[in-house]
Amino acid sequence: MCLSIPAKVEQIEGYFARVTVGGATYQANLQMLDDVKVGDYVLLHTGFAIQKLNEEEAKESLEVFEDFKKLNEQLDEEEKDKGERIV
Amino acid sequence: MIKFIDEYRDREIVGEFVERIRNISKKPVNLMEVCGGHTMAIQKFGIPSLLPAHINLLSGPGCPVCVSSRQFIDHAVALSRLNDTVIVTFGDLIRVPGSSSNLDKEKASGADVRIVYSILDALQIAQQNPDKKIIFLGIGFETTAPGTAIGMQQAKQKKLNNFFLLSSHKIMPPAMKALIDEGVNISGYIAPGHVSTITGSKIYEELSEKYKVGCVISGFEPVDLLKAIYMLVRQFEEERPAVEIAYKRAVNREGNIKAQKALEEVFILKEDWWRGLGVLPESGLQLNEKYRALDAGNFQVEIEPTREDKGCICGEILKGLNTPKDCKLFGTACTPQDPVGACMVSHEGACAAWYRYNR
Ligand code: SF4
To answer: Rounded to whole angstroms, how far apart are CA atoms B37 and B92?
Structure first.
C-alpha cells in the first residue's frame, strides 16, 4: 500500500493525468502538484501524483555513481601501492 | 528499460557500494528501516547478504496495517454490520484478523465490503449510492494521508453527506522517537522515502539532533538502499550523525507543501495506539472540527472487547527486538494464506516479506 511508483505523464486534463508505468496506464490526480507537464515523471501513490521526479537530480546522482566508481578504482590502486586500506 | 528504476538496479554500481561499505565499516552497528516498502525491498534484493555481518539491519514499525490496533479492525467489523452501509478499503486491510472476525469473513456473510485502489474510487461509490452510507477506512502514514485529506475536501465540496472516514492514519516521527526512548539500540535510521516526499527531510532534524541518531532518506531500489546504508555507516564511523538525503530525485528539505496544507486543513493530531509501542501522544490523525460530521467514529456501534493472539510476537518484531524467525508460529501456524498476526497479512509486513523472500 505504501508503494509509490515512477510514472510518465502522457496526457493532462484538468486535475487528472493519464500516466504510464512500463506498459500499463493509470489515472493520476494532480491536485498535490503544481506545473506538471506531459513528459514529466511523477510518483504515483493510491491514485495521486505525490511528487515530480527531478531529472536533474537523477542524472546527477547517476553521474556521482560513475565518479564513485572511478574513485573506488583510484583508491584501490593507491591501496595496492601502499599495501594498506585507505578508506 | 523502465526509467528511474532500471538504472538503480545496476549490478556494477551495487558492487561498488558494497565494496565501499565493507572498506569503511569497522564497528558493529544497528540500522533500522521504518518503512514497509523498505522492509520489502531489503528482503527482495537480499541486501543483508551483501553486507558485513556486523552491520545489523532491523525492521521497524513501518507497515501501517501492522502497527494499527486490532480495535480498529473490530470497529470496522462492527460498522460493516450496520444496515445500508458500505465499507470501502485498501485490499491490505480486509484479511487482517480482528478479535473474533475480519472484514473478509463479514463480506462472506453478507456485509458490503469493497476494495478500492484510491479514496477517489470510494467517493464515486458514494455518489452512485446516495441511499447508502459509505465508510472509507483511512490507513497509512504521511504518504497516504494527504490523499485522504483531498478526498475529504472533495466530499465536503460535493456535499456528499453519505461519505464518512474511519481514520487510522499515523505520522512517523513520534514512533522513531519512542523506539529510542524505549532503549532500542539504533545508531541510524534508513528514513522512509515516500513519507519524506511529503514531509521533507526537515521533520527528522529535531530527532537527529536530540538523540544523536543518523537519518538518511532512502529510495527503494538496491542502489538507493546501499547508498543510504553507506552514508549511515560513514556517519557512524565518523561520529557525526545527521539528516541526509540519498533519494534526491524525489525528496527535498521542505517536502510537498500543497500536500502538507491539505493535511493541516483536514486533520488534527491525536494520541494513538501503535502495536509494540503502545499509546504515543500526537501520533495519529483525526478529522478536525470542520470535518467532524464526516467522522465514522460518530456512529453508535458496539465494539467487541479486544482480544490479542497468544504467541504472536508482532509487537516485538515491529520494535526490531525480534525477527520473524524468532516466532514459533512463523511459517507453521502463521502463513500468508492463514495469517495469525497483521505482520503476515500486508506485503509490507516483516513476517510476510520474510516468508516470501527469506524462508
Ligand atoms: S509469524 Fe505470524 S504470529 Fe508470528 S509474529 Fe509474525 S504475524 Fe505474528
So the answer is: 14
Q: Global pTM?
A: 0.89
**Could you tell which of B319, B328, B344, B347 is best to mutate to test the pocket of ligand 1, judged by most ligand atoms within 8 Å of the CB?**
B344
- ipTM for this prediction: 0.88
CA distance B327 to B138: 29
Contact: B12, A69; criterion CB under 8 Å: yes
Taking a C-beta distance cutoff of 8 angstroms, is the pair B155, B127 a contact?
Answer: no
Q: Where are the beta strands (DSSP E) in chain B?
A: 29-33, 55-59, 85-89, 112-115, 133-138, 163-167, 188-191, 214-217, 243-245, 267-274, 278-287
Answer whether A54 touches B (CB < 8 Å). Answer: yes
- Count CB atoms within 10 A of the CB of residue A9: 21
Instruction: Check if the beta carbon of residue B24 is closer than 8 Å to that of residue A87.
Output: yes
CATH number at residue A14: 2.30.30.140
CATH superfamily of B67-168+255-271+281-298: HypD, alpha/beta domain 2 (3.40.50.11740)
Give chain A's domain count: 1
CA separation for the pair B10, B222 (Å, rounded): 8
CA atoms within 13 A on the CB side of B136: 28
Contact B115, B69 (CB under 8 A): no
The answer, yes or no, to whether any atom of ligand 1 lies below 6 A from the CB of B317, is: yes
Angle, in degrees to the nearest 10, between helices B36-44 and B350-357: 10
Domain that residue A29 falls in: 5-85
Mean pLDDT score, B162-175? 97
Q: What is the DSSP letter of B85?
A: E
Domain boundaries, chain B: 67-168+255-271+281-298
Lowest-confidence region among A47-61, A66-80, B13-27: A66-80
Q: Which residues of B touch A25 (CB under 8 A)?
A: none
For chain A, say whether B261 makes contact (Cβ under 8 Å): no
Q: What is the DSSP string of A8-77?
A: EEEEEETTEEEEEETTEEEEEE-TT-SS--TT-EEEEETTEEEEE--HHHHHHHHHHHHHHHHHHHHHHH
Would you state the pLDDT for residue A56? 74
**CB of B344 shorter than 6 A to ligand 1:** yes
CA of B157 to the centre of ligand 1 (A): 43
CA B242 / ligand 1 centre spacing (Å): 34
Q: How far is CA B198 from CA A51, B232, B288, in A?
A: 8, 22, 20
B23: nearest CA partner in chain A: A87
Residue B244 distance to chain A (closest CA, Å)? 14
Q: Inform me whether the pLDDT recorded for B103 exceeds 60.
A: yes
